[in-house]
Amino acid sequence: MILGLTGSIGMGKSTTAQMFRDLGVPVWDADTVVHRLYAPGGAAVAPMAAAFSEAVRDGAVDRAALRDLVARDPAALAVVEGIVHPFVAADRAAFLQVSAPLVVLDIPLLFETGADAQVDRIAVVSAPAPLQRARVLERGTMTEAQLDAILARQMPDADKRARADYIIDSTDMDTARAAVARIVEELG
After folding, report:
1. Is 15 flagged in the annotation as binding?
2. Residue extents of the structural domains in the chain
3. How far apart are CA 103 and CA 145, in angstroms?
4. Which family does it belong to (predicted)?
5. CATH number, domain 1-26+100-188
6. Is the distance from CB of 45 to CB of 87 less than 8 angstroms?
7. In the prediction, which pLDDT does 141 show?
8. Is 12 assigned a ligand-binding role in the annotation?
């Protein structure tokens, strides 16, 4: 059973993914794979340098510089995705060779990338919009304008929830933990 786990930025998806891990469920994390691809020696560094030299510094993709570049030139996003998505897909395929009754694919852009077609069930991590915004801005890694640009590229939370088999309310961690336990019991 392959469970797709998704949720917009700041919804608590990474924390929720850890809850699945804590229950012994193998979790593949798309963001972790991208970080590895962008790190020094990562498979995406050279092709990204060829496409966007200003976004590569000290042998690694500078995510902040890349985010700024995409904000200035929205067409650049398709180029980035064309470079990164094949590497991510190959890593996901390798992970799916694991032998387990339930696995989780933690994919922030599950619907946006069409990856929802590759899972058996979908869980969406959700929280009220003001809490979402506060969580992201408290990180201190982006401005409100950058957050708004990211949200504009993501499917609205209400649409994600409408397409979900499970909704995990991450307003508080006890509620989220209980929802994760119910899902694991049902699917695992």
Report:
1. yes
2. 1-26+100-188, 31-97
3. 35
4. Belongs to the CoaE family.
5. 3.40.50.300
6. no
7. 86
8. yes
